[in-house]
Design a protein that fits this description.
heterodimer; A: 282 residues; MetI-like fold; 13 helices; B: mainly alpha
Chain lengths: 282, 312
C-alpha cells in the first residue's frame, strides 16, 4: 500500500514536471499552425520585407514593425546597459552593507512595477519633456527607448550582480596586492572574469525589451511606417498585435498571429544565445 | 626583581596590543588616505563617480516614479471610484479590484500545485543527468522569456477560439497560470535546494519513505521560500495586461461564473487610458496598483528573509 502510494506520487510529480514541456509545445503548435498559413498566403518575402501595412487593401508587410522593434530595443540597450552594469558593480563591490539593504529591494521593486504603470508614467512625464525638447508629438523612438532602457534595468542588474559575485575573491585581492586601486582591481581584474555572465544579463534584457507591449503602445507613436528620424513614431511587433487584434478578422487576424510568430522566433533565438552563454560560464 | 619583570611584562603586553591594533587598522583606509589615492589616480575617481551616479539614477528613477504617481494620484482617489457598480460616470474600480482577487486565486489554484510538484520532482526525485530534467529546464527558460502578448495571443487562439470559451475568466486564468508557472518552479527549486541534506538523511534514518520525507521534513522548512515565489507571482498577475485583454476581455462587471468576461485592475487602467478622457481616474488606479505592488514586494522580502534565517 505504502509502496503504491510512493509510486503513484512519483508519477504525479513527473507529470507535473512535464507540464511545462506540454505548454511550450502547445504554444508552438497553435501559434505556427495559425501563423504559417497566413504567411504562406501573403508570401514570406512580402510579409517579412514588405514595407506597407494596409490591412484594408490586403497589404501585410511587417518590415516597418521589425525595424521599429529593433530600433527601440537598440535604444533601450544604449540607455539601459551602461546604467545597469555600473549599478551592478556598485552593488557588488562599492556598496556599504546598510545601503545595500535599501538598494537591493529597490531593484526588486523596479522589476515589480506593472508595465502599464511605466507606460502611464512615461505618458505624463516623459512625453511632455520630449515635446518641449524636440517638438512634435513627443511620442517616438527616443521616448520609447529611454523608458524601455529603464524597464530592463532590474534584469540586467540582477544577472550582472550575481555574475560579479561569482568571481573568486582572489582575483580582486591579487590585483590589490599588486598595487592597483580598488576601482582598477574591480574594473580590470573582476569585470573581464564576469564578462560572459554580464552578457547573458544583457541578452535577457534584450528579450524583455523586444517583448514589452503595454508601455510601448502608449508612447511609441504607433504609426506603421518606416521611421525617418529618432523622434518619429514607430510601431513595434508587439504593439501591432495589441492595437489591431480587437477588430481584426480573417486574413488580417491571421497576419497578426503571424506577427506573433515572428516575435516568438526572435525570442527563441535570444533564449538560445542566453543558454549558450550560460553554459559557457558554468 | 619580581615586580620589575611584571612591569616589563605589562609593557611588553601593551606594545603587543598596540601592534595588533595597528595590524587590524592597516587594511582600513581612512577617508584622507582614500582622497590621496584618488589624487594619484584620477581615473579611479572618475570610475567611482560613474558607478555611484548610475546607482543614484537607478534608485532615483524608482523614487521619482513612485512619488510622482502617488502625490499626483492620491487626490483623485474619491469615494465615487469605489462605488459597487461600474458605469461610465463613476468609472468605479471596485469590480476590477474584485476581479483581480478572483483572478489571483484562480491562477494560483492551477499554478502553485503544478509548479511546486514539478520542482519537487526536479530536486528530490530526479537523478543526476536525468534527461527529463534537462528538457524541463530548457522549456521553463523558454516559457520565462515569452512576451506576455504572445501568451495572450496563444490563450486567444486556444481557449477563446478553438475551445469556444469566448472571452472568459477561465481563459485568462489558465493563460496567466502558464505564464507564472516558471517563476513558481524556479523559486520553489531554489528553496528546496537550500534545505540541508541532513534533514532528509534524518528523516530517512527514522524510517520514513521518500514521500513522507518530502512532505514532512523538506517542504515545511522550504515554505518561506516557496511563499516568497508565490507572492512574486501574485505581483505578476496583478500587473499583467497584455495577456489578459484578449483572453479575459474587458467587461467591467463582477463575473457571474467562470465563463464570463472580466477586467482586472491593470486592464481597467489600460481601458481608461485608451478611452482618453479618464486621466484622473487612471492616476487613481495607478496609485492603487503601485500600493498593491509595494505590499506584495515587501511581503515577499519578509518571507525570503525568514527562509534565510531558517536554513542557517
Amino acid at each position: 500500500m505504502k509502496r503504491q502510494k510512493e509510486n503513484i506520487m512519483k508519477y504525479v510529480f513527473l507529470i507535473c514536471a512535464c507540464m511545462s514541456i506540454l505548454f511550450v509545445a502547445l504554444i508552438c503548435i497553435f501559434l505556427f499552425a495559425n501563423g504559417l498559413p497566413a504567411m504562406a498566403e501573403i508570401g514570406f518575402a512580402d510579409f517579412l520585407l514588405g514595407k506597407n501595412w494596409k490591412p484594408l487593401q490586403n497589404q501585410f508587410g511587417i518590415f516597418p514593425m521589425i525595424i521599429g522593434s529593433i530600433y527601440v530595443t537598440a535604444g533601450a540597450i544604449i540607455v539601459g546597459v551602461p546604467i545597469g552594469i555600473l549599478t551592478a558593480i556598485f552593488m557588488s563591490r562599492f556598496c556599504p552593507k546598510k545601503l545595500y539593504k535599501i538598494i537591493k529591494p529597490a531593484v526588486g521593486l523596479l522589476a515589480g512595477i506593472p508595465s502599464i504603470v511605466y507606460g502611464f508614467f512615461a505618458l505624463v512625464v516623459m512625453v511632455p519633456i520630449a515635446q518641449d525638447l524636440f517638438g512634435g508629438s513627443g511620442k517616438g523612438i527616443l521616448t520609447a527607448s529611454v523608458l524601455l532602457g529603464l524597464m530592463i534595468l532590474p534584469t540586467i542588474i540582477e544577472v550582472s550582480e550575481s555574475a560579479l559575485n561569482a568571481v573568486p575573491e582572489s582575483y580582486y585581492e591579487g590585483s590589490l596586492a599588486l598595487g592597483a586601486t580598488h576601482e582598477r582591481s574591480v574594473f580590470k581584474a573582476m569585470l573581464p572574469a564576469a564578462k560572459s555572465g554580464m552578457l547573458a544579463g544583457i541578452i535577457l534584457g534584450i528579450g524583455r525589451a523586444i517583448g514589452e507591449t503595454m508601455a510601448v503602445v502608449m508612447i511609441a507613436g504607433n504609426s506603421a511606417i518606416m521611421p525617418e528620424s529618432i523622434t518619429s513614431g514607430v510601431r513595434t511587433l508587439t504593439s501591432n498585435i495589441v492595437l489591431e487584434m480587437a477588430y481584426a478578422s480573417g486574413l488580417h487576424e491571421e497576419a497578426l498571429i503571424a506577427t506573433a510568430c515572428v516575435l516568438f522566433v526572435f525570442i527563441l533565438l535570444i533564449n538560445l544565445c542566453f543558454s549558450m552563454l550560460k553554459k559557457k560560464e558554468a | 626583581m619580581a615586580e620589575q619583570t611584571k612591569k616589563l611584562d605589562e609593557r611588553a603586553m601593551s606594545e603587543e596590543e598596540m601592534k595588533e591594533l595597528e595590524a587590524s587598522n592597516i587594511n582600513k583606509i581612512t577617508l584622507k588616505r582614500k582622497w590621496m589615492q584618488y589624487k594619484k589616480h584620477p581615473g579611479s575617481l572618475a570610475l567611482f563617480i560613474l558607478v555611484s551616479l548610475s546607482t543614484v539614477i537607478t534608485v532615483g528613477v524608482l523614487v521619482f516614479l513612485i512619488l510622482y504617481i502617488i502625490i499626483n494620484g492620491v487626490m483623485h482617489l474619491t469615494l465615487e471610484l469605489f462605488a459597487w457598480n461600474y458605469n461610465s460616470e463613476n468609472v468605479s474600480m471596485t469590480p476590477a479590484l474584485i476581479n483581480t482577487l478572483i483572478m489571483i486565486v484562480l491562477t494560483l489554484i492551477m499554478a502553485v500545485p503544478i509548479g511546486v510538484f514539478s520542482a519537487i520532482y526536479m530536486v528530490e526525485y530526479a537523478k543526476r543527468g536525468n534527461k527529463v530534467v534537462k528538457i524541463v529546464r530548457i522549456t521553463t527558460e523558454t516559457l520565462q522569456g515569452i512576451p506576455s502578448i504572445v501568451y495572450g495571443l496563444f490563450g486567444y487562439i486556444l481557449f477563446v477560439i478553438t475551445l469556444g470559451w469566448s472571452y472568459s475568466m477561465l481563459s485568462g486564468a489558465i493563460t496567466l497560470a502558464i505564464m507564472v508557472l516558471p517563476l513558481i518552479m524556479r523559486t520553489t527549486e531554489e528553496a528546496l535546494m537550500a534545505v540541508p541534506d541532513s534533514y532528509r538523511e534524518g528523516s530517512f534514518g527514522l524510517g520514513a519513505g521518500r514521500l513522507r520525507t518530502v512532505f514532512r521534513a523538506v517542504l515545511p522548512s522550504a515554505m518561506p521560500g516557496i511563499l516568497s515565489g508565490v507572492i512574486l507571482a501574485i505581483g505578476r498577475i496583478v500587473g499583467e495586461t497584455a495577456a489578459l485583454i484578449y483572453t479575459a476581455g474587458t467587461v467591467a462587471k463582477i463575473p457571474e461564473n467562470l465563463f464570463s468576461s472580466t477586467r482586472t485592475l491593470a486592464v481597467h487602467m489600460y481601458c481608461l487610458l485608451s478611452e482618453g478622457f479618464y486621466t484622473d481616474q487612471a492616476y487613481a488606479t495607478a496609485v492603487v496598483l503601485l500600493v498593491v505592488v509595494l505590499i506584495v514586494n515587501w511581503l515577499s522580502g519578509v518571507a525570503a528573509k525568514k527562509l534565510m534565517s531558517k536554513t542557517k
